[in-house]
Amino acid sequence: MATAEREGHDAVPRRRAQGELEAQVLAALRQASGARTAGRVQEWLGGDLAQTTVITILTRLHAKGAVSRRRVGRSFEWTAVADEAGLAALRMRKVLDGEADRKTVLARFVTALSPHDESLLRDLLAQEHPEGGS
Questions:
Q1: Can you list the alpha helix ranges (DSSP code H) found in 1-134?
Q2: φ, ψ for residue 69 (rounded to 5)?
Q3: What is the pLDDT of residues 69-79, one digit of tens each?
C-alpha cells in the first residue's frame, strides 16, 4: 500500500450523514446577513460541491418550508426560514404525516422517550400557546 493511501490522501471522501448537507446549507443561509444565491452558498461551503447539488438541496429545503426564495433575474436568492431544530421538526412531521394511525405512532414515540425527554415534552405541552393552541 502506498504511503499516500495510508495517510488518506487517495482515500474515498467520507459519505455525509443523512441531513448533514441540508444542515450545512441551512447554516450557510442563517449566517448570512441577507439572502444568498446558490453560488454564494457553494462558496461558503468551500466549493467542493457542484452548484447543481447546492441548488438541489436548496430546492428540497424550499419544498420542506425551511427556506424561502425570491427570483432575482434568472436565478433565486435564498433565505433560511427554519434553524436546525426546525428542520428536524419538519422531518419528524413529514414522517408522522405519512402514517395512517397517528395516535398509535405518537403513543409509541412517547413511550420510547427517556424519562427526561418525556417530562420535557409534558412541560412543553402544558405551556400556553399564543396562537390559540392548547
A1: 3-6, 20-30, 38-44, 51-63, 84-97, 102-111, 115-126
A2: -140, 150
A3: 999 999 999 99
